[in-house]
Amino acid sequence: MALLLALSACTAEEAPVVQTANVARAPVSEVVEAPATVGARATASLTSPAAGTVAKLYVSDGDTVKKGEILARISAPQARDRLKEAKKADRQAARPVSFGGAPSVPSLRLPNGIDPHVRKSFAQARQAARKVEDKAIRRHLLSAIDLAERQHRSQQKALNGIVGGLNRMLTSFTGQLGAGMSGLSSSMSSLQAASRSQTRAALKAAEETVEGLTIKAPFGGVVTLGGGGGSATPALPDLAELVSGGGVPAQAAGSSAGTIAEGVPVGQGETLLSVTDVSELNLRADVDETDVLLVENGTRAEVEFDAVPGAVYTAEVTGVGVTPQEGATGGVSYPVRLSLAEGRFDDGSEAPDPKPGMSAVVRMIVKESPEAVAVPAAAVVTSGRDTVVWAVVGGRAERRTVTLGAEGDAYVEVVNGVKVGDRVITRGADGVRQGQEIP
């Protein structure tokens, strides 16, 4: 509904000093405007995992590819040589190491009792002594033989005790040696396991590098040859460094590639091409700190592009960032993400899809009242902490403190303080006094 304007009486030669309008119902929308940039659903920079040459290039600039499609192959003999070395080192590390058991130490043995030859000698001595005719001499000889035999038995017993002690010492030594050999075997097994772990890591890294020489699309999208850097594929690890415990080296920074064509040499980590998924476009807007609290998920927006004059696109807020950043004018702003939908020209025809990187202006509708009690924005003045509208009652100015709702560029919503049909001052309100006569 159009608002009715009435000019105060004035002479034809004088410009009007005060203008008024009637309060009416009208749709009012409060908009937060911010600069924005178009982004793609996803972008990936694909790099060479090793130094080599471009053996085969299957795509051109602007080609549309599917996920998993082969884009290029890199020839890198050095990478394949390192894979062979890694396989050889892993096989060697897998061989079992055996140290055998502890050495066997024989026990010392002595005959039990008197040796048969000694016993026979004692028997022969007794037989000879019994042939002596003199009883006294015979008795003396037999006593001497018995004494000698007892002494021999005693010595044999003592010797057996000494030998038993030596055997016990040998047994203890054998056990200790066996335990030492067992501990050594366990330590060497642990060392072998650690070495195998390192060679396996080196083998896996070398296999991944060789596998990565076939460049594939990580998702569907549009191809751009060359590139402006990006994260590089992890560098091929040095086998000797891994085996010595050096670990996998840090990945190299991606480098910006020049012309990419078959036969062109490429460095490790050099960007070969990029794939951009444009199936879903989004916007990143920088919203000033004074407005960002009004923006929330689901807020509708209208978008205009310099590249598509006369077209308006629809969008919706999908996320509001919390990390502040310096705005274009030096103030603080916050990133706001929006999903971008189709656009239309004034005649209703469909507008073309923008491209990633294009700049835009986003107008987010943060408040909307389709049937608001509305007054022209010029009718609202600020007096200290109060928001004031000057109404005309009985031909005189009357100060009204009001509460505002949605604030549009041309009209604002008044929640209380005036009603539909009231006459308010829209021009010269800042110079009006209470009770002043208004024609």
TrEMBL record:
InterPro entries: Beta-barrel_YknX (IPR058636), Biotin_lipoyl (IPR000089), Single_hybrid_motif (IPR011053), YknX-like_C (IPR058637)
Basic and acidic residues bias locations: 81-93
Domain Lipoyl-binding, first and last residues per copy: 43-74
Domain YknX-like C-terminal permuted SH3-like span(s) in chain numbering: 373-438
Domain YknX-like beta-barrel: 283-342
Protein name: HlyD family efflux transporter periplasmic adaptor subunit
Ranges for region Disordered: 81-108
Record-linked Pfam families: Beta-barrel_YknX (PF25990), Biotin_lipoyl (PF00364), YknX_C (PF25989)
One Gene Ontology term of the molecular function aspect: efflux transmembrane transporter activity
Superkingdom, natural source: Bacteria
Spans traversing the lipid bilayer: none
GO CC, alphabetical: efflux pump complex
